[in-house]
Amino acid sequence: MLARVGLASVQRPAFQACANAARLSSLTLLRRISTVKTTHDEAQEILIAQRKNRPGSPHLTIYQPQITWIMSSFHRITGVFMAGGFYLLTCTYGATSILGLPFDSSVLVGAFASLPVVLKVGIKAICAYPFVYHVGNGLRHLVWDFGKALTNDGVYKTGYAVLGATAIIGSYLAFLW
């Protein structure tokens, strides 16, 4: 019984201190905020001064390159370049039809057929490798969406499988006659 009385007497002042701190913190929330009108130039100076005090985010060079973020970067890059090429070709078709210029599939095939073999293979490789890589990595992401191969081992295995498939299938498409 003495232990209980001693414990309660120790807890009560601690509880009161917490309650008092809670009341004080609720009072500080009612503090009025004053604003000062500034011109656009003054506001810009304030923003520049604040940005100078912000910490810079770490750059990619401090991290050890890993297949996961390298493949993710190249997936985005190949997607952007393929979309840009598609839009460029589509807009060219549209613009030449509006302007009445002779540009259609037969013109493209004739121009490509007249190129030397080395240039043909180079152009096909430039188109085939990013396409195969992007499709393969997209299928890899679909596998992940189904909840498969989400372990570190699975991520690395599927990554190397995509790179291998890109090398084999891309080479096949580039050298296909």
From TrEMBL:
Superkingdom in the source lineage = Eukaryota
One GO biological process from the UniProt record? tricarboxylic acid cycle
- What CDD domains has UniProt attached to this entry? SQR_TypeC_SdhC
The record's subcellular locations are: Mitochondrion inner membrane
Sorted keywords for this record are: Heme, Iron, Membrane, Metal-binding, Mitochondrion, Mitochondrion inner membrane, Quinone, Transit peptide, Transmembrane, Transmembrane helix
Matches recorded under InterPro entries? SQR/QFR_C/D, Succ_DH_cyt_bsu_CS, Succ_DH_cytb556, SuccDH_FuR_B_TM-su
Membrane topology of the entry? Multi-pass membrane protein
SUPFAM superfamilies assigned to the protein according to its UniProt record, in alphabetical order:
Fumarate reductase respiratory complex transmembrane subunits (SSF81343)
Q: Where are the transmembrane segments?
A: 80-101, 107-133, 154-175
Q: Does the keyword Mitochondrion apply?
A: yes
Q: Which GO terms describe its cellular component?
A: mitochondrial inner membrane
Q: Which molecular-function annotations from GO does this UniProt entry contain?
A: electron transfer activity; metal ion binding; quinone binding
Q: Which PROSITE patterns match?
A: SDH_CYT_2 (PS01001)
Q: Per its UniProt record, what NCBIfam families does this chain match? A: succ_dehyd_cytB
Similarity comment: Belongs to the cytochrome b560 family.
Q: Which PANTHER family does the record match to this protein?
A: SUCCINATE DEHYDROGENASE CYTOCHROME B560 SUBUNIT (PTHR10978), SUCCINATE DEHYDROGENASE CYTOCHROME B560 SUBUNIT, MITOCHONDRIAL (PTHR10978:SF5)
Q: What is this protein called?
A: Cytochrome b560 subunit of succinate dehydrogenase
